[in-house]
Each structure stands twice: as structure tokens, then as C-alpha cells.
Amino acid sequence: MSALPTQRMTVTPPYAHNASKTYPSSLPDGGLVSWSHHSTSSPGSFRISFPSVRWGYVRSTQGWAGLQHHSLVRATIVLRPPTIRLRDGLGKTPIGMKVSVSQGSMFAVLPRYGHGETDDNVKWHFGNIYDLPEVPQVITLSQNVSPLEETSFDLFISADYEIRLFGDPVVLQGGEVPITSVDVKVDLVYDRAEGVEVGSKHVVPDFVGGWAMGDALGVEVTSWFGDWEVVGVGTSANLEITMQVPQFHLVQGQTRRLPLRLMQTQPLPHLVALPITLSLVNRNTPNEDPTTLHLTLNVTQVPPLPTLSRTTLRTLALRQTYFTPHVSYAYLLPPLNVSSPTRTPPILALHGAGVPLDNPFWPAALPRQESSWVVVPGGGSAWGYDWRGPSATDCFSALDALSTWLGRDGEREGEVMVLGHSNGGQGAFYFASRYPDRIKSAMPAAAYASAPLYVPTVYAHGAHFTGVGLDGVLQASMVGGDNDRFWGNLVRSKVRVVHGGADRNVPAYHSRMAVQGVKSWDAHADIELMEVPGKDHWWDEVFTDPERAKVLSELVNGPVDEESVTRNFTLTVMWPRESGSMGGWRVLAVDVPGRLARVKVIGGQAVSTMNVHVLSYTPLKTGSVTPTSFTIDSQEMRVEKRLETYVFEKADGEIWKLSEEVVSAPQHTGPISRILVSSQPITFVVPKEDEACLSAAKRLSWALYTYLGLDSRIVSDAEALAEDDANQTQASLGNVVVLSQGGTANAYGREVLRRQPSEFTFGRTGNGEIELGGRKFAEPGTGVMFMHGPRHLFVHGVDADGLERVLRTFPIRTGTPCPEWIVMGKDADARSFGGILGAGVRDYLEMKPYHGLPNYKAIEAYEKALPQHNMNLTWPEGKDGRFLRFETPYHNIGFNNQLQDILMSAQLAYMSNRAYVFQPYMWNISSIEPVQLDGKHYRSNIIPLNAFIEGPAAGARFGPGTGTTVDGAKAAWEAPRAVSYDWYDEVCPPERRTYLDAGEFRKRVGVVEMDKGPASSTKEILELFSRELLKVNETCVSFTGDHVFTFSSFGDRILSTWDILQDSPILTKFAWSPLVRGIVSRNMHLFGDVSRWDDPSSRPRTKPTTDIPGLLALHLRRGDFIPHCDNLAHWRATWSGWNSFSGFRDRFPLTFEQVSNMTYEERLPYYMPHCLPSVEEVVYRLHVVRREWELGGEERKLKRAYLLTNAEKVYKDELRERLLADGWEHVAMTSDLLVQKPEVEVDLAADMMIGQYAEVFVGNGFSSLTANINLLRMARKVHMDSIRFL
Questions:
Q1: Three-state SS for 918?
Q2: Does the pTM exceed 0.90?
Q3: 232 vs 445: CA distance, rounded Å
Q4: CA-CA-CA-CA torsion sign (936, 940, 945, 950)
Q5: Measured between alpha carbons, how far is 34 from 6 in angstroms, rounded to an integer?
Q6: What sign has the CA pseudo-torsion 838, 840, 844, 849?
Q7: Tens digits of per-residue pLDDT, 1167-1176?
């Protein structure tokens, strides 16, 4: 064995060992180190030390943090013949090695070549640094193993000396030299003979009175060779077991714990052995017979608790199982009086680092309570995640499981007391300070205040190379675990801090500092230090000593301190998702993620905030009064009705508003480690047949299972997409890690980014590059990790080397700085954090619940399932039906331009007795990728038509008697319903289609073009085309080439179609979609009396009427119209299409002839007031419209104004203020609408619906949106003078 004490060293194949080469190091005299040779007492057992280093001197200047160091160990694995295993007379050649590296952080196995070369990357495997129970990792042999000669491999081990792992050498060994211990075990994997087998780390509940303590059962299964799927589970016992997940499979080399659910219908007091049979198939050979595995699980039976003596109960620890969603378990220590009607809070008891849950030492150290249950969770493993993240989830799941078992589901969110020792003590501080309303009392013992104060990281190698900005981002990603930042959250709690005065592991200074810190927030806080002189880090009576046992009982059973309930306080939050409420107040979102947020509460309802964007208040059950008003940042808000939870959101201009509608789920932001908290087993998605990504997924899966007890699954991108399609939602996958490298695309990942674009985009060159904010990362060896939304983590390498590099930063353990995104370059090998090319967190707007692109799968499924999509229907539908498709859709234009074409095209199909083939709204027909229209925000490029509208143009029925005969007369049958673009492809394959060139067809039917004389009107085009199409007998007709209806068709020539359209089902049965109607209904309080709104969109109109009385809606378009209005003046444009009805009161002041005879400078003053009016012009115009409308009768009263506008904030604020001053009772705008995520891309249509049903509508005569609103208002037969213009 050779060892090298240094900070970093790069190992790349082929490796040529040079024993005399020197490397720089800060540890030895002279600053240089070289390889040293060590002999082991037994193969695979390494004890690594460097006595030549003056460790005492290092410690005198740097403290024990200076003892922490990194060693690179090189050893040799030799496979000696005979390596061929004989079975059934056949030779079995090994294909891999089972390798276990205990107490090493990482390891790599490289083939040793004499003169050969290899292009393989070094694949670093996670070692078992905590010496946890493990299943070996399978290392595939990349070189042939000779049956006749020795085959050698280089084994490299990253051996890290950590104080928490190996202890202080002065305390443990009485010397100054730190010793790192590493143990290695190697076995061989042969071919299919190894197959699949059950392991030993099963999870089985105890049975009390014959009933299982929990419904979760876990069976460990390992695949040594092949990919296996469990297809059957059974038992001969008198109970039922089923798989908790719909599908369970393992890839080769993976270990998982099969989650099973127990279901009992009767007690089983005599069950002592639970036989289980698993049936599995090898996915590589699916036609072979299933493999059957048998195992028997031992069951511990406990008599009914009321029958047990107090002496027995005093030593009893019951194993309870539950799903987190992973199969987990905790020990429950029952109260001595199990039949007591008194219900005191349970105690959550957190063990120290390295203490296995099954070790009886920890439960024996806990005093039993008279009426409180003690819950002893494992946190995932003996080390867990420092009681945060997945370990915290395990604790809350254990508490919930206890409530369920006791039949107290109503108390699942009840109060809890927490205690813990050492790392469990800091865990007690963590729970009490992050969830102060639930954890009302705590007893931390021998706890460190924060990791940086316990073992300082100022001497870390990478700290020398990071700038202040990057250093701040990295530190911010770990602040959520530093308890000292949150001491102020304990001022309302009862805390008793226990510490040995002679503690040589965690000095008592930490507890003294904690008490001092809490008292600094509030001198009257109920926190006390119980320092025990002469005691070290642990002694058997830490909690059971009579004095401390009495204090513990008082913490559990004591009354509520009324003074603490009314005490002023300051709540501090880092990541809202990881924090609960204090005094009923909870931070749901921050302004700037990565910075602390604070809420100072005075007198219960007076609040001042720092870095808070969304805040909620839930009155507590005790000590709270019903609020009548709230004051936040000096802004008073009156409460009109009592709510269970009040939610406040900061709007533009730092204005707080109270809203019942804001979703009260905490903001999804935080370090990458949040990927570890999942509602389902974590899914790794890898590109099909990408061995580099598959290897990475296997290694991560092993680490999650070994370190944290987390289950994970590995699927290909094709499988993930198939599951996504089947389940209609990606949530069924739980949290997802998307792996990719080089030019190999992960199809599932690309689909996720298509639906909800990211700041990160994959380059189109196919070489693995990735871009962020215009910066391209394309250098080989670069890797990136970034969170995307709440559930996806992307891990990508520009090449396989980059994937390996970024993989090493995956937060398997705490203490790894991983903000929401991080880019690692090759310099990380030598400079650690100094090789980070970028890192950061997202801002709040990107984290809002409705951020991202909607998922239209439900609407797509609705369109696909339309009843007319049926080959067996009778003519004119079905396989022999009549269809009309327009192959040249409009694109790169807005929704309203496309809506005009949709209505006219559908009308033509209707008049031709053909089914209109509708298609989705598309911006760019050459791509399916989302588009960025304003240079900042993305939107879906393809949106189903039924997301916007309903009615015959979108597939609804026309009604009886709407068919058309060949001569154009009405027939008894019903007109054929519109079908989707995809259904047309199915019912009309290319060989059945008749293609008609639209330009040639126009000539054929006699359409007169504008350059040939008086142009044909749009009505004439409809009639000429439909008359000829009725004569066409072919079923499938597709127009190609030019558009049937050109832009000129939608000018004033379209008015000629009014006598056709006004009675056509295309218009009379037009309706807005449920998404659109939902927006309007939810926001009716902005426009009028909510009780009078009953969704009128489908009601027939036979006389003039209004639906939102008292409302004037104004279309005030700015944004893109700021330059466009100038263009309109250049183009000599007049009002468009449906804005030019002769009966309208307002008209553009100039005729086309007048405009044509004027210069641009002469024309411009006539355009701007009507196209881009100033604030003063808008206020005056609405004042005049209101006065003239109200002169028409006493029932006409306009009180509210709603502005359909994209105007800039300064303009809107001034206009709102001026309109209110002019007498309008309420002014609302598009930006005031509360829009949910599925609706964000159809809110334009909601504006249109409001304009359609307002009592008076004032539009922009140059706008197609205004024109379509006016068409819909005319279809409803409104008063003509209720339609006005700017």
C-alpha cells in the first residue's frame, strides 16, 4: 500500500506509478510530500498515519481542525488463478468484483496495463465512510481476467481523516498522530449464476396483542447480474401483503428495499415467522420462467400493553414501521401508565452520530414517562442527515405513524417535546428552532451550536480560491443547518440545555453560547443551562439522573406559559420549505432566496418584515384572539371575515395585500439537497444505452440507500416518458434526477424543459455544451447540476469526465455546499471550490406556484377522446365522412389573428358540409420548443385549441338540422363535427387525401384579387369556395399553398359576412373554455356582485342585455403597440375588420382617402389619441363615455372600470390613481387577476371574456383583440352604443 497526505490529486488512466514524485502539501516540514509505503497486518485492513508530520505544532496553531486531512491510498487487487468457477462441468468466468471500502470516502478501481492505453474515465465510487451496514458495490471488469495468470488492478482510496469519525487522537490514543482506518473487502461476481438474492437488512414491525405496529414491511433485494422485476409477492401467513409501489425493478448491481404493505383482518398473536415468496423475472430474458425467492422474517410478539407490568414496560422498546415513502422504522417506548386518559405530548428522542438504531444503548438511556410515548427514530441510518432533510421527514413520519396506531389521527400535527444527545442534541435545537409552534420544549445535551463552530472549515483547501461572491453563495447554501442563526426562534419555548463541564468532544462553550444567544434575543426567554461539572461527552445518567429526569417530566407535563404566548418575538427563516410557524406566523416565500428572512411580531398582529414575500398567519388554539386587522410594515389591513389561515403577499411597490386565494404551500427553493425529500422513491432517469449515466445512477442509488436508507429506482428516458404519458403527470415519479452527458440527449429531460423552460439550455451542436444566460459552457470536463422546479435535478456533463466531476458534489452527506445550481470545471481537481465556474439560487418570481409552463395533457386527452373520432360513425362522419383541412396555418402572429382565421375557416367547412380540422394555437410551426416572445419570459409554442375556446369550431355539436345539401340548402342531418389535426391523419392517410392549391382554387372559383379590379368580398369568397366544395365528392380535402383567407380578408371586407355569421352555430354556439371561465369566475369580486355571476358563456341571447352591470371594460394596449402605432401611421391604416360596423357611434376620424392625401407628420396626431393615448386622454375619454352612457336611462350606472392592458407599471399606477379621483369606485387591471398555473397562458382570453360581458366596452380600433370582442358582443345583440372606442 502506498499513501500520500495532500489536499488534491488527479488520477487518470492509464496510471503510471512514480514512487519518487513529490507533491505540494501544507502539512509536513518543507511543504512537499511523496508516496510512502505501508504494510498491512491483514489484507484489506489499512491503518494510515503520517508520524513525520508535526501534528502537535499543527494543532497548536489551527486547533483540531488542522488534524483533518486527505490521504490518497494506492493498493493492488490481484486476482490469482484459478478464477474460473466450475458449475455443472462448465467454466464460469468472473464479470465483476464486489467491493466494500469501509471508512473511505471514495474509491476507484483501474485496470493495470503494462504498455496498453485506455480511454475510460475514472469512475469514483462512494465509499462507506461511516462504516454503516452495506451491500458491496459491483465493479464491472473492464479487462479480461486470465484463468492462467494473475490479473492486477490499481485500487485508489480517498481516505479522509474526520474528527467526528476517528476522534481526537489525544483522547482516544493518548498521542498526537491521527490515524485513519480503512477496510477493504473484495469478492467476485460470476455470470448469471449470481442472479438476484435477498439481503439481510429487512424491516419488520413488532406485533402487539397480535396486531402489527405499522403496515410497512421492507425486504432487501440485490441484483448481482441482470435487470430484475418483481412480478409477484405472496405469503402463507393469515394476512395480506401487497406492493406499495405499482412497479419494482432493479438494474444490475443495485440494491433496493421492496416496500410491502401489510393488511390484517384479525389478530395474529401466534405468528413468530412470516414466510414470504417473491417472484421475479429477468428483464434481459423475459421469456424465461420467473425466479422464485423464499425468505422467512422473524416476528417479535408482545402481549397487549395493558397486561404488562410497569417493570416490563420500563425496559420495553417496540419496533414500529411506516412509509416515508421509503420503508422505515422507529422504536417506541410506551408510557408506564398506558391506560392513562391523560394525553401528554410525545417525546422525540434523537440519537448521536454513529449510534445504530438497533443498539439498545440509546433506548436504555432514556427515562420512561408516566403518560408520554417516547419516539426513537433512526433518521435513515446511524449517521443520517444530521436530522435535517430526509432525516427530519423520517422523524415526522414516525410521529404520524404513532398517532395513527393510537387512533389519534387528529393529533398528527400536535405538540411534541424533543431531546437528543451530541448530534442528536443539535438535532433537538434544529427541530425546536425550525418548528417552534409544534416543538414547545426541548432538552438538547452535548450539542454543538453549528458545524462551522464545531469543526471550522477556514482551512479547507478550496477556501483559498473562491471570491467573496461565490463564497457567500456557497456558505448560504449551508446556513439552513446552522442552529445559531435561528436561536431567536426559541424565545417562546422551554429549553433546558445539558452539557458535561469536561466534555472533550463538544466543549461546553457551545451550550453556554446557545443560552447566551437566545437570551440576547429576549432576556426573559425560558432557557437554562444544566452544566454538570466533571462529566465528559457521554455518561450513562445524562437524562436519567433524578434532577434531569424531573426537569424532563416538567417539560412534557408543564402548563403553557401564558406570558410566552403573548411575548413579542422575531421569526428567522432561511428556506421556507424547511421551517414551520412561530406564534401562528409562517414565512411562505422570501424576496431573495439564499438570504435570511425575518418577521418581527409585536402584540400578535403588528408585523415588520425583512426579505419576506408571502406570509401567513394561523391563529393558535391557545392564547390567540380573532384578529380584526393586521399591520404589516406599517400598512394596516382590515379583516372582513374570519379565516382559518390568513395569507399576505407583497405586490408591486412593496404593497402588502390579504388574499384568500394565494396557495399556502411554502416556496420551493433551497439547496440541491432538497431533492432527497421525495413523495415517492427517487427516480434516476438515464438516456437509453448510455453506460456512463447508468453507472452514475447506480453509484448514487447505492449511496442513498447506504447512507440515508432512501430507496431509488433507475429507468431509461423512454420508460420515464411512457410512465409520464400513462399517469398524465410527472408527480407519479416522485423526485427525479435527470442524468446526461456529451451529445446524448435525455429525452425525458428535454420534455421536462419543453414544458417548463429553464435558465439552462442544452446547445444544439450535439457536443454536450450547455448555456446559462448567454454564457456557453463547452469545455471538456465541465459538469453542471441544477434544480428545476420542486422535483427535478439535472446532472449533466459536457462529456463523461464532466459528469464524473460534478457527480462528486452530489450532497450525499451534509456539509457539501450545493446551492440550487452549480457548474464545475476541470480546475476543481486541483483547487476544489476554486474550480466552480458558477453557482447560485433563483429569484422569487421563478419559484411562484404558477411559474412555469402549464401541462395541457388533460385537454389533449379530451380532444383525442372526442366522440366524433370514431371510424364507425355514419356519414357525414366516420371513415367515410367529409373533412376539410388547411395545411398552411397562420403562425408568428397572435391568438386573435389566428382566431379570426379559425372562425372563418370553420364557417367555410360548415357551409361545405365538411368537418373542420382544427389545430392547436401555434406560434412557430417549425418547432415544438417553447418560445421567448419578449426576450425574457417563455411560453408554450403549442397550446390546444380547447384551452382557449369551446364550440363547433373546437369540436362541439352543431345541433339537428344543420347539415348542408349539395346545392347549399339546409338538411335534416347534423353538420359533421370538427375533428383534431391528429385524427385527420388517422382517418385520412396521405393516399386518401385530395390536395387543392388555395391560390389555384381561388382562380378556379372566380375570386377577384385586389390587383385585378374591385376585390371579392370575404362573403363572396365563402360562398364561392363552399359552392365548389359541395361538389367535390372526395372525403379528405386539404388546402395547400396560400392561405384561403388572406390578411386583406379580415379588413373591412369581412363585414360582408355578418349576415351569414350572426345566425351561424360557429358564432352563436361559441364559448370560452373552462380554463378561461375559471379565471373570470374566480376574479368576479374585481368587477361586481359575485352572487350574480352564473357563467353566462353558453346562454342564448335573444335581446340586448348585460351580464356585468356597472362595469366598463377598456382595452388599453401598450407594450408592443408603442412602436406599432407609429407603424400604423406610416402604413395609412384605418380601423380593422369588426371595429368598422356602420352602426357604431365612434369611427376613425379620417377616411382612407383623407389619410392617403396627408403626409406622415400630418397623419400622426390623428393616430396617437386612438392608438396610444396618454393618461390624461384615457381619463377624459372614459369620463365622456360614462356620461354619455348614463344619459341613456336611469338604470345605466357605470361604477367600476376594468383595464385589459399590458401597460408598464408607472403608467398603470398613475392611471389608476387618476381614474379613482375622477369618480370611479373601483379600478382593476389585467395584472390584478389571480391566475392559477394551468391558466397562465390563456389569461388573454379571460380579458376578452370580461370585455365581452361588460356593460360597456371601449376598445382600440386598430386591434384584432378589440375586433373579436366586438364580434362576440354583436353576436349577443348588445346595444350598439355600448361598444365605444378610444
A1: strand
A2: no
A3: 48
A4: negative
A5: 9
A6: positive
A7: 888 888 999 9
